[in-house]
Please model this.
Amino acid sequence: MSSSDIQSTFIETPAAASAAAISAADTVDENAAMALVSDHNDALSPPRKITLTSVGNSSGISFTVVGLDETGAAATESITGANAGAVTSTKYYSSVTSITAVGTPTGNQSAGTSSSIAGLIFGGDLRMRGMYVVNTGTAGTVNFTQGSASGTSRLKFNTVAAANSTEYPDIPEDGVVFRNGGYILFDQAKLSSITVFYA
Model:
């Protein structure tokens, strides 16, 4: 009897996006750091993009975000503030260390999570052999990338708008190869959970 080298990773969609999961709405002094919620990094597992929301017009200043990206590497990003609305980061974050205003924000500011998720399949080389998907009521596209969230797309898959329905898509017999890690990019509202099988 032969043994299998197939492993699996289960990614369940986290809580819905929250405008204040990282920093509650409050005024921020000139060139000062926003006060972070004590357990804010819990909202960044799996990694996701963050949002900055302004009650007033803070479009004339920027905010410097410092933390770790989806690979665990140090990440810094400058995000221009919003005019009575929200802006979203370009990067995905697994943790946030600080968010500092560059200038004087207008009105209350808050920092939270977006619906854009970057889940890790495995951090090294892998060969994806299959997946089992549970859908939500909204269709969307799941993107599988190599090396990081911004790496080469190796596979895309469209979910269907049928809450709690399941799919077990066919993968080519030899699987799909990922080098230096594989990541799953999806919208929180468009995927309930996914199990990926790999070797």
The CA atoms of residues 37 and 67 lie 15 Å apart. The longest strand covers residues 109-122. The mean pLDDT is 96. The chain has two domains: 7-13+119-198, 18-115.
